Amino acid sequence: MTAWSGFAGLMPLEGYEPPGVESFDLPPLIPGQEWANKYLLQAVVSVVLIMAFWLVMSRKRALVPSKGQFLGESAYMFVRNSIARDTIGHDFKKWVPLLIALFSFVLVNNLWGVFPLTLMPTAAHVGWAYGLAGLVWLIYNGIGIKKFGPIGYLKHATMPPGVPGPMLIIVAPLEFLSNIIVRPATLSLRLFANMFAGHLLVLVFVLGGEYLLLHSEPVFNKVAGVASLIFSLAIFGLEIFVQSLQAYIFTMLTAQYISSATAEEH
Amino acid sequence: MTQVQRDSGGSTTGPGPDKTAMDQGMRALSYLISGVLLYGALGWVGDHFLHTNFLLPIGIVLGAGLGVYLTIKRLQAQELGAPAAPRATRTTTTKTEGDR
Known about the structure:
The complex is a heterodimer. By secondary structure, chain A is an all-alpha fold. Chain A has one domain. Chain A contains 6 helices and no strands. In chain A, about 30% of the residues are buried.
């Protein structure tokens, strides 16, 4: 301990409580109703906003688009062309509504993480990520079963192409596990972990910077606090990028799962 | 056959190869995770009941190897996907030539 006494000025952090997992346990908005928390409010508001956005976009169509219509149309064409068409192929049109809805929902709910009034991505609570991935899981297995029948789909999900007979016995459970269990798990955990870690990073920079600047004595700490707060802006920028990217990846993978559940490759 | 058409259609548009690359990457990851999980778990179960301690690492390595094997097979199937039709006919013609 005496060896550290010279550095005492560097570590006066007794009153500092670092952010952790418990930072994500938000109190319920209505007392006594555990389910009515900020995440639910954000999700509901996001649905209302998204519906309003797409209704306005589709209502006020003009041949020469305004700036707003241009934004809406480019967002729509982005999902339609570079996600749905390029991934699903010739039968993509009936999946565009689902993919648009998923993309809008995940994007808006991720961006709640940098919106000043909310500052919390909805998927930072793992239940929302599980729910979304569960929905995708039901859809792609459902259409697979609808197309090939239960037995046919089981075959489709367990038989990798181009594997000779005896190898198939060791490899079929692997293919099944990969298609049916690992896919939804990675889909949900990828979204959740990115949002959770991003928010935690922001918390560390902002709360740590705030503590160093306002609640600690040495001048060096105050300088470090200011630096930390300035860097937190860069972290916010990074978060905007990660949140948009994760919304894109989530939608892209959904399209891919739909495509591979209905692909005729045998 | 629809696979063939989709692949060739995807590669003509700009982000086509990008999308298949992402698909392959995610598949490889998924196979590796499944392989390690499944055969690692089997190895662990074997260790637990046979009171040995070498089956778990063997299972993990074997699972990872099988994941790589599946990825290779899947990539081969995709690569053959685009020129599959002409190549299939070519092989049949060479076979008939050999028979002659």
